[in-house]
């Protein structure tokens, strides 16, 4: 972090209107907003010096009053399957994780919305973190910028970029930090900046029912619901938020989700826990519940973490479950577990600083180029 950062205005995370307003305070005309926006969100500038279309004098005024500082990547790990994980540290010492999952011709960045999570889903490692705070819009966008930096994809043609999608499936419950998540995603979707469209963004929620409609209206992103159980008694246990917003209410919110249709289905995430939620009867009940919803199902083999009380369902069980759901007309692929050797798989995210000694399974840092 550079000197005086505390008193400088952070540009990342400001809306265009806010940026214009701030720039005006220091005598800059409105057209500068567009210029800066392009440098920051298209070219990935990390310092004002790089902004060669702006006169030197103006650059030094900007330098005096504004900052583009990113959080520090204290770890940058690559899995044998090319999944990549960054452990980012903020100036207050809090750390979060961001994971990039590449596929052949695209890739999704799994973005965190909170440090830890206030919810305590019994199968999720993040839910065991004692410290929780919301991330600011700046801290959410910074994850995207750090990934673009690391993947070396600034200024490249879209078809040459592997980072195409965003999933709000990292640490935290995004709908408990809606304002900041909404601000960050609006900036990320801006067509003259990072320009990742709402169709390429998926927000996953454990079921914060009152926020779902607003999310669909205002952001229009794809929705994923962490369902995981088909009966309230079991879901109360696995996803304690269910006690507040039970399955029936959750499914009504899904039926009414403004941004869903036949071509843009709601994903129902279902973590496969041996002997807990993986029977044929569970699969049939799932099909019954989803009747009439624009839905697809994502079966997630549970990813173990030290001290957890569950086991992953067998492959045969997951396949049998998937077949029942598929035969009823819902696509039900089994999500591949990625980045396990760097502890980057779904639900394993928990900042390094909160992990007990001996729990770490880092296989090593990214080899230096
Ligand atoms: N809080 C949000 C988004 C983050 S979690 C939510 O719960 O939806 C992203 C997904 O990972 C959720 O579906 C969550 O239930 C799932 N998950 C959590 N722990 C897991 C684990 N150990 N194995 C597999 N999936 C897990
Ligand atoms: Fe929080 Fe999601 Fe983990 Fe539940 S599954 S504890 S809501 S991060």
TL;DR?
The protein has 369 residues and is of the alpha/beta class. Helix content is 29%, strand content 17%.
Describe this structure in words.
The chain folds into 2 domains: 65 residues, DNA polymerase, domain 1 (Orthogonal Bundle); 297 residues, Alpha-Beta Barrel (TIM Barrel), CATH 3.20.20. Helix 1 packs across helix 2, helix 4 crosses helix 5 and helix 9 runs parallel beside helix 10. The longest helix is centred in the middle third of the chain and has 15 residues. The chain has 369 residues and is an alpha/beta fold. Strands 3-4-5-6-9-10-11-12-13 form a 9-stranded mixed β-sheet, covered by helices on one side. Strands 1-2 form a two-stranded parallel sheet. A two-stranded antiparallel ribbon has the order 7-8. Helix 6 links the parallel strand 10 and strand 11. It is built from 10 helices and 13 strands. The structure holds S-adenosyl-L-homocysteine and iron/sulfur cluster. S-adenosyl-L-homocysteine binds next to strand 10 and strand 12.
CATH topology of the largest domain: TIM Barrel
The unique ligands bound to this protein are: S-adenosyl-L-homocysteine, iron/sulfur cluster
List unreliable stretches of 5+ residues. 355-369
Q: Determine the structural class based on helices, strands and strand pairing.
A: alpha/beta
**Total helix count?**
10
Largest sheet features: 9 strands, mixed
Please state the oligomeric state of the protein chains shown. single chain
CATH architect. name of the largest domain: Alpha-Beta Barrel
The run of helices and strands is EHHHEEEEEEEHEHEHEHHEHEH
Mean pLDDT over the full residue set: 91
